[in-house]
Write a structure and sequence with these properties.
Elements: E1 10-15, H1 31-45, E2 49-55, E3 64-66, E4 72-76, H2 93-107, E5 111-115, H3 117-130, E6 134-137, H4 142-149, H5 158-169, E7 172-175, H6 178-188, E8 195-197, H7 212-219, E9 227-231, H8 240-254, E10 259-263, H9 276-287, E11 294-298, H10 302-311, E12 314-317, H11 326-333, E13 338-341, H12 346-349, E14 356-359, H13 364-375, H14 378-395, H15 398-417, H16 420-436
Parallel strand pairs: 1-2, 1-5, 2-4, 5-6, 6-7, 7-8, 9-10, 9-12, 10-11, 12-13, 13-14
Antiparallel strand pairs: 3-4
Helix pairs in contact: 1-15, 2-3, 3-5, 7-10, 8-9, 8-13
């Protein structure tokens, strides 16, 4: 049973580039879109008045779209009404913030929840102009990206100073896993008393185990052939090239006959012209002599995901950086074990040798060995799948996530309305609590 203190609030979720109504699977559409959509729906179900503010990228979109889940999406005019890579959106955030100040000064708002650093920049403006407190979920951190991508990172360098300012000004910071919290403390000097760890989730009405034969028949897949699935955005940091190389090690080094099914891209039919990463990955498959065994399936809508996850024997995901990662949860919710990189949120959601295996990022030999071990042991796959289901039900439903986020909102709003003496008392209580918990820095694992 989840205990919830619910005072209905007017909540503004800002998601500058990731709209809940966008088609998923592209370069700039993925986990953040799902996070915002699910959080908005569950907060609305709890009784909050929820609006999601995102940049209008299509002139055909209405300014306000009422969603069947009970929240609304407001398409904010800021820059050209066409898709723009998120790395190039920063110059339009001033116009976005101007529009938001006008809208919220008219409509009112109790708490803002910014998603991504550019949304955080808008939230700072709202706090300054309208005294609205804000919570932020970064979804990715610039300094961590730079550690791995260096010159390949295409965000402007101003991102780092903006993130510093957001960390300083935010009333609460949502870290999606312990590693995310540790990164914010060590790289941004975040105040631990402002950090709250709240993971992502899955929706059991959307994702559940499907009989494997039915799932494969629905997708037109061979009912007998062993299948390893990789699903998500096709961008270099997701490590799909490493998944192909690890798959090749399994095929050639351990003699496992299987197919690697790669789902994602900008179009329903895989097209290297629309998704250049597909072309690069096809070349990797040729270099590794597994081009015939690697199948690119194109983009899939949310309604078909449960069939892909259920059709697979194993799900693989090996990004080099992942603040959380929703796809491992989705696979686990369908009873399919995960072999994932031992990074960020994946090492939080996947329990090594219990719900799957964790492997070092960018080490295809280690990945190939674990894939071979799991593909060769049906009983182990079954046990991992059953434990996966138990774990996600226990810790990672969107209802639990929304409940925890609601508690953060209630804290922030209560502080905003408290008298100076009450705020001082609350600060002292927090300081005592943090001192008593200093050994763990307030970070707990489920």
């Amino acid at each position: 049973m989840i205990a919830m203190n619910i005072d209905p609030l007017r909540v503004a979720l800002i998601s500058d580039h990731a709209s809940p109504i966008a088609q998923l699977g592209g370069v700039d559409t993925g986990g953040q879109n799902v996070y915002v959509a699910q959080l908005a729906a569950h907060l609305a179900r709890m009784g909050h008045d929820v609006a999601v503010y995102t940049r209008r990228d299509n002139n055909d979109l209405a300014e306000t779209v009422d969603m069947p889940e009970g929240y609304r999406v407001v398409n904010v005019a800021a820059g050209p009404a066409r898709p723009i890579p998120k790395e190039a959106l920063l110059p339009y955030m001033q116009a976005f913030a101007d529009q938001m100040v006008r809208k919220l000064s008219r409509d009112g708002c109790d708490v803002v929840h910014a998603n991504f650093f550019m949304s955080g920049l808008v939230a700072i403006r709202l706090k300054t102009a309208l005294r609205i407190p804000f919570v932020v979920t970064f979804h990715a951190l610039g300094r961590v990206r730079l550690l791995y991508q260096a010159a390949a990172d295409r965000f402007p360098i101003e991102r780092l100073s903006i993130e510093d300012q957001i960390v300083a000004d935010a009333d609460r910071i949502i870290a999606e896993c312990p590693q995310d919290a540790e990164d914010q403390i060590s790289l941004y000097s975040a105040d631990p008393s402002k950090l709250r760890i709240v993971p992502c989730g899955f929706d059991r009405s959307e994702l559940q185990p499907i009989d494997r034969a039915i799932a494969r028949r629905t997708l037109g897949l061979d009912p007998e052939l062993p299948i390893i699935l990789q699903l998500g955005r096709l961008v270099p940091r997701k490590g799909v090239d490493n998944a192909i190389r690890g798959f090749a090690r399994m095929v050639h080094g351990y003699g496992v006959a299987a197919r690697l099914l790669i789902v994602g891209g900008e179009t329903d039919v895989p097209d290297p012209r629309s998704t250049p990463e597909i072309g690069r990955l096809q070349q990797v498959a040729r270099e590794e002599n597994v081009a015939e065994q690697v199948i690119f399936a194109g983009r899939a809508d949310r309604q078909r995901l449960k069939y892909y996850y259920s059709a697979a024997d194993v799900f693989v995901t090996t990004p080099w950086y992942e603040p959380f990662g929703i796809t491992p949860l989705e696979s686990m919710a369908c009873g399919t074990p995960v072999v994932g990189a031992n990074v960020g949120g994946i090492k939080y959601s996947v329990v090594d040798s219990s719900t799957g295996f964790l492997v070092p990022a960018n080490e295809p030999d280690s990945l190939g060995q674990r894939l071979a071990q799991l593909m060769g042991n049906a009983e182990l796959r079954k046990r991992f799948g059953q434990e996966s289901l138990r774990r996600v039900e226990r810790h990672f439903t969107w209802r639990r996530v929304a409940s925890a986020i609601n508690d953060v909102y209630q804290e922030v709003v209560a502080e905003q309305t408290a008298s100076p003496i009450q705020r001082l008392a609350g600060g002292l209580a927090t300081l005592i609590e943090q001192t008593n918990a200093s050994a763990s820095r307030g970070i707990a694992k489920p």
